Amino acid sequence: MTDQNRKLIDSRGSSCPGPITDLAIAYRNSKIGDEIELWATDPGVKADIQAWASKTGNLVESITEDKDRITIMIKIIKR
Amino acid sequence: MSRKSVVIIGGGAGGTILANSLRKNAFDITVIDKSDKHYFQPQFLYIAFKGSKENMVRNERSLLKKHVKLVKESVSAVDLVNGIVKTVDGEYRYDYLVIATGITSNASLISGLAEINEKFGDYHTNVEQSKKVWKNLNGFNGGTIAIGQSYPLCKCPPSPLEGAFLTEEFINLKGLKGKTKIIFFTPYPRAYPAEKVNDEVEPLLKARGIEVRTFFDVDRIDAAGNTIYSIEGDSIKYDLPIIIPPCKGVSGIRYEPQSILNTDNLIKVDKYTCRVEGFDNAFAIGDAAAIPTSKSGVDAHLEAKVVAKILNKGDAKFDGRTHCPFDVGYGKGTFVIGSYDEPVIRYPITHINLFMKHVMAKIYWGSLKGTYDDIFDIYFKETNPAKLKKKYGK
Ligand SMILES: Cc1cc2nc3c(=O)[nH]c(=O)nc-3n(C[C@H](O)[C@H](O)[C@H](O)COP(=O)(O)OP(=O)(O)OC[C@H]3O[C@@H](n4cnc5c(N)ncnc54)[C@H](O)[C@@H]3O)c2cc1C
Prior knowledge:
By secondary structure, chain A is an alpha+beta fold. Chain A has helices at about 20-30, 45-55; strands spanning about 5-10, 35-40, 60-65, 70-75. Flavin-adenine dinucleotide binds near residues 297 and 300 of chain B.
């Protein structure tokens, strides 16, 4: 994994229109094999990203929750 | 203390409020805008869907306090390292810089969109484009209307759905309901991205027969085949398209360093102070800033006030507050209210909330000059999301 294939999106504090905006834009600019690390705070993000992944055919590799951050790792496998 | 020079690029909502809020005896203030006309952009909605003849435009000069200098020029380059703003005609040195250039729509970013945008118009670009929407709605005799945003970044998050609601109202009142299908498409997982607001508007969409296509992020348009295709692999065939073009930060300004821009041409800033990444004496406010809140006049207003406080007094923090009015048709509305710490709350749909939206439009020109600052301070305090949450529940 090179840095070029990896993108960090910090959507913490964003609730409207929210992290999915940042993810959708990152997805447009991505290529197969890219990894997106998304940081968010709104708990609703977990279900939304799962729904997004199943709709677009991409992979949610992991979701981890810390006190002040939800970290979601996404792998782009379909474009 | 010696006087300091402040250069503000862009005299829209944010730039104008900021210029008028800075201390006159401490700063030499220059606003540079490529246009001397200031439009109240939310009015585009009512030109497009209600046929309003009121364009809501004023000369920028009349909106700025006398001591603020206004220069009508287009900025072509900004050198943050050396503190210089360049236009075609001149150079401006500054002690403090504020970038408030907004975002602009650009139909050519989506394949096929420019072709239909010219004919069908849209309600996010200007008065002329908005008038085309009204004309086409009036010429419509039945079929499928497809309405939505073509890119995830968009001015005023409620505005796509407001367009759908007002379209339905128009079609219904014209007696065309039986012959018309209205499809609202959105890149989001639900009709309105914030869940609590969606809970309120979804039943309305259902009741009014507006079909919702979620996760529909526009990829391309086949103008000859009247079809919109999404990145996710779906398609919509239309008779009348009302499509909001992609919005991005303005192009045509060369920044040094270029690294302050993100992929959408927005300026990377600290979300609490609006300071440009890496520069203590430069700020970006309003739509132009990459801040995780909605692209709205209310946010431009609140961010301008924060930067004014920082420059006037030395310290202030933006809490990410949003307060977007939302017209759901038939004389009712709500507000989308949240902040960095409070995800968008539940808020009722009422006649009085729509009335408040229209009142805010009516007092817009005065609010640019600070006429209603005291009232706004109380208003934003009383409508604080943490406070309202107690009243309207989870
Ligand atoms: C249909 C619609 C409905 C809306 N409804 C609402 C609403 O109900 N409530 C709400 O709060 N907001 C609403 N908005 C959003 C609101 O209009 C914007 O968020 C707000 O105008 C942003 O202010 P700004 O100062 O950041 O940018 P703008 O007001 O867009 O101003 C940017 C300025 O920068 C100037 N500029 C750009 N490039 C250059 C350059 N190179 N050189 C010199 N000058 C330059 C432009 O000429 C312009 O004057 C709506 C918008 C639309 C389109």
